[in-house]
Amino acid sequence: MLTNLLFFLAAGATLMLLAWSAIELFQTQEDPLADRLEELQSQALVSATRSPRRIVGRNRILSLVALFPGGDDWMRGSERLLNRAGVRKKYALPVYVVGTLIWAFGLLAGMLWLQRGNPPSSLLGGVVAALLLGFMLPKVVLERLVKRYRRKLAEALPDTVDLLGIVLGTGLALDQAMMRVSEEMEYIYPQLAGEFATVVMQVRAGQERTVAFNQFVKRTGIEDIKSLAAMIVQSEKFGTSLAQALKVYADALRTRRRLRAEAAVGKAGIKMLFPIVVFILPVLFVITLVPGMLSVLKDLKMLGGGR
Known about the structure:
By secondary structure, this protein is mostly helical. It has helices spanning 2-26, 32-47, 60-67, 71-84, 92-114, 120-169, 174-184, 190-204, 209-220, 223-238, 242-306.
């Protein structure tokens, strides 16, 4: 009885910690631009003194995780995924690491409790399965967040590029035009507006525009943004008309978006085939055939009774 009570208390505490971690990790930022600039400054200071055994000096938990074999690479990969998912707060990585460890050890404790009294081979298999699920499931969720963030950026890119070309046609410089577009698109496409504002603030802070756009491409990992960055850099380098190039590029992006939508519609029929065959057709057969079969059985029973 005491063991069951302790297990349920531990499970409740784990769920509460996971819920708190999710709230802290994905809550709306009040000032995303200031947070990103502060993060850039902290990364610039930390990158010069970062050792392979210690990721963040102010956080002992990350330092302890980095001591384990593969812990440093795991945290670097998680940090890269968090950045590509648009989660770039200072405490995003510590919250993710702590949440993942709590989830993994919670599953491990539950598996040990369920496998109590079983042979060692079964216990070992359960422990391995719990650890794999505990570390893989958060990564799968994070990768889905990355895909969702990229999809939002890709959807916002054609309209934003078109507006950028229009603003550049009024005579504004590139930095001023990007900041203006960021302000206009803040409530419609906040993800891409934040990325544009980050690039502008990096350039204003003294960073080369080529480096700022390269970091923009690395943060997002989208080919269309890579092409946009290359076009802007080349246009500035050779002095060609950027407004006209952006107009043509926006039309090309709209064409690609329409083709992606048509491809998605074409795949919808194939994707619906499996649920139709597995879930809809059996129900349809039951609704269609069962009443007739019941009627036939009833008639046969009446005939048998009449004899």
